[in-house]
Amino acid sequence: MVSFGGHMGLVAVVKNVMVDKDKTLKNETILDAVGIGSLLPGPLAVNVVAYVGYAMRRTAGAIISMTGVILPACVAMLLLSWAYFRYGYQQQFKEVMYYVTGAVSAIILSTGLQLYVKELNGNRIRTVICLAGIAGILLTNSYVVTIGFIVAGGILGSTLKLHTGGLTNSGIESRSFTRRPGIFSLIILGCLLCIVCLFVLNAQQYSDNILLKIIILFSGISLTLFGGGYVMIPIMQTLFVSNMGWLTRQEFLDAIALSQSTPGPILVSATFIGYKMAGFTGAIIATIAIFAPSAVLKVLVAKAYLQIKDHALAKNILSGVKAVVIGLIIGAAIKIGGQLSWNMPLALITAGAFICSFRYRLSPIYIILSSALVGIIVWFFK
Q: Would residue 89 be called left, alpha or beta, if left means φ above 0 and alpha means ψ between -120 and 50 degrees?
């Protein structure tokens, strides 16, 4: 309900609530989730939450955690979509949420610095890798480059044995790499591959059923586009505005603006598109199709990873990857801040949010709600 902005903002809230406050997770779980999720298609935030749920309570945990993180945004987007097509879009709400974005960037920065202090612990090599991750996200918008940094971090971690310090498997708990996937997992992988094939072959053009078109398009996007919502948005614009003609350019921009005004992942804009094309049913189907396939793939990967995560090689690889991930989190906060048009109220809200989060470990729930309230007051007098 309070994870506005999705992506690293949602990850930061999960970390602050579940690691720092409730202590039901370890930092390691969050970093593993981000590291693995960054290598997979689909929205990063939902993939991270699916991993967290699976790590805690396996399949049931993944389903419940995904439902919990998507439901508030989906309900909010349904209401906003109904109001949009009935009354039109009011810009005032976006101006209020502008101040929340500053608070979100502060929470992400605080999370990254907390992880840096606790996980890297002054290690020079991992600090250099972390700085490379920060530079990577700040200097380029290419998801391929980001993947390259993550892979390079894993290679360095394995080569330099950053976790084991040169020890061999004899002194470390090890699990076999040879366990094969079950028949059920293979069937699911086959189904996901079929979805990708249907999407690549433009199978939706051979159907007159709008719901089937929605399923093929959104599930295909979920499994073929990497880099999370901000990378997927321009491709979705080309697909739904230029190719399919489902939305006007202004409607698409409004859909993105509305999605950023709701808690949770930015790709809840799929709910808006589905609502326009097929009402309530279309909105629900589009939402499930954009999030579920990539999350299912994430759970399959999580299942395999959790079987070998205690192996020395896996520990060394993830040690390097985690350093890059911490850099990506810090870099994401800096990048979000760099995209804002700064003024005195925004600067004060952001600075206060950072101090409350980093120094006093105040729950992001209170920080975000307070920043929204201040934003309403500033907008009212403005």
A: beta
Buried b (16+ CB within 10 A) or exposed e, 95-114: ebbbbbbbbbbbbbbbbbbb
Closest CA to 110 of 339, 322, 326: 326
Domain boundaries, the chain: 1-105+182-308+341-382
| pTM value surpassing 0.85 | no
Closest of 137, 98, 119 to residue 330, by C-alpha:
137
Structure tokens, 146: 């980001």
Report which of residues 267 and 92 the model is more confident about.
267
Q: Which DSSP symbol is given to 85?
A: H
Residue 196: Cβ within 10 Å count? 16
- Who's near 310: CB < 8 A, 6+ residues apart? 172, 173, 174, 175
Residue 168 confidence (pLDDT) above 60: no
CA angle 313, 317, 323 (to 5 degrees): 150
- CA 364 – CA 357 distance, rounded (Å): 7
Question: Both tokens of residue 112?
Answer: 């990254």
The gap between the terminal CA atoms of the chain, to the nearest Å, is 27
pLDDT at 365 over 80: no
Count, residues in the chain:
382
